[in-house]
């Protein structure tokens, strides 16, 4: 019998999500180190990547997306354009090799930010999702959930805010609500973590997730 951890098996795809200021990037690095140590004995690697970005073209699109004002549909289309490139050049080849991929954001962010935050039709986004991903979904999505007021206070003064980070608290309240709606729709894929607790507590929760993934 071939288990998902046996040599030759396809790798797993894990995504980290949350509103700006929820702390996902810090935890992602720690989680990736733990996972890499666990997979090393199987000869598998962990590929850490991010969206928008993850490829040379995707990173150029990221700069535009985070800096330039644009029509909201243009924004969604560019997110998916960057994602198409990311899937074709990085994510799918890594999974095919048997490596595991951890992405700092993926399509749930588009539903949350462009759909929830900006109000773009969820149905239109679902069409693009199907086109670009052809049914591929993360095996696990870790959602760092935090009240937008708390997230805003964490971000204040940290560094020059980008286009999204300049959005008001109400935008992030809508973004968070859409993340939670998607998590409720796919509970088998999502692990929702209350991000309003000390880092050590969150690491304990992540360790449990790691054991079961
Ligand atoms: P983020 O992941 O928060 O990176 P950093 O921690 O370096 O700021 O920045 C990416 C921003 O892009 C974030 O504000 C969310 C936004 N975004 C979308 O609006 N839609 C998407 O589909 C993705 C992937 C990101």
From TrEMBL:
GO BP annotation list: dTDP biosynthetic process; dTTP biosynthetic process; dUDP biosynthetic process
GO terms under cellular component: cytosol
UniProt: ATP binding residues: 18-25
InterPro entries assigned to the protein according to its UniProt record, in alphabetical order: P-loop_NTPase (IPR027417), Thymidylate_kin-like_dom (IPR039430), Thymidylate_kinase (IPR018094)
EC class of the enzyme, as a word: transferase
Keyword Cytoplasm belongs to the record: no
NCBIfam families: DTMP_kinase (TIGR00041)
Name of the protein described by the UniProt record: Thymidylate kinase
Organism annotation: Pandoraea thiooxydans
Gene name of the record: tmk
């Amino acid at each position: 019998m071939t288990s998902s951890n046996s040599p030759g098996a396809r790798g797993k795809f894990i995504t980290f999500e949350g509103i700006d200021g929820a702390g996902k990037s810090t935890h992602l690095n720690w989680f990736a180190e733990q996972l890499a140590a666990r997979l090393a004995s199987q000869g598998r690697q962990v590929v850490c990547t991010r969206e928008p970005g993850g490829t040379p073209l995707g990173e150029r699109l990221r700069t535009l997306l985070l800096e330039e004002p644009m029509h909201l549909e243009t924004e969604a289309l560019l997110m998916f354009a960057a994602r198409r490139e990311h899937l074709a050049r990085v994510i799918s080849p890594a999974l095919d090799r048997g490596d595991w991929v951890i992405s700092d954001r993926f399509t749930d962010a588009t539903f949350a930010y462009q759909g929830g935050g900006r109000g773009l039709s969820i149905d239109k986004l679902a069409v693009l999702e199907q086109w670009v991903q052809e049914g591929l979904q993360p095996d696990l999505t870790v959602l760092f959930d935090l009240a937008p007021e708390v997230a805003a206070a964490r971000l204040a003064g940290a560094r020059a805010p980008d286009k999204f980070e300049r959005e008001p608290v109400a935008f992030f309240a809508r973004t968070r609500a859409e993340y939670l709606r998607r998590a409720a729709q796919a509970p088998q894929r999502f692990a929702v973590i209350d991000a309003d607790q000390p880092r050590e507590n969150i690491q304990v929760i992540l360790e449990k997730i790691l054991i079961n993934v």
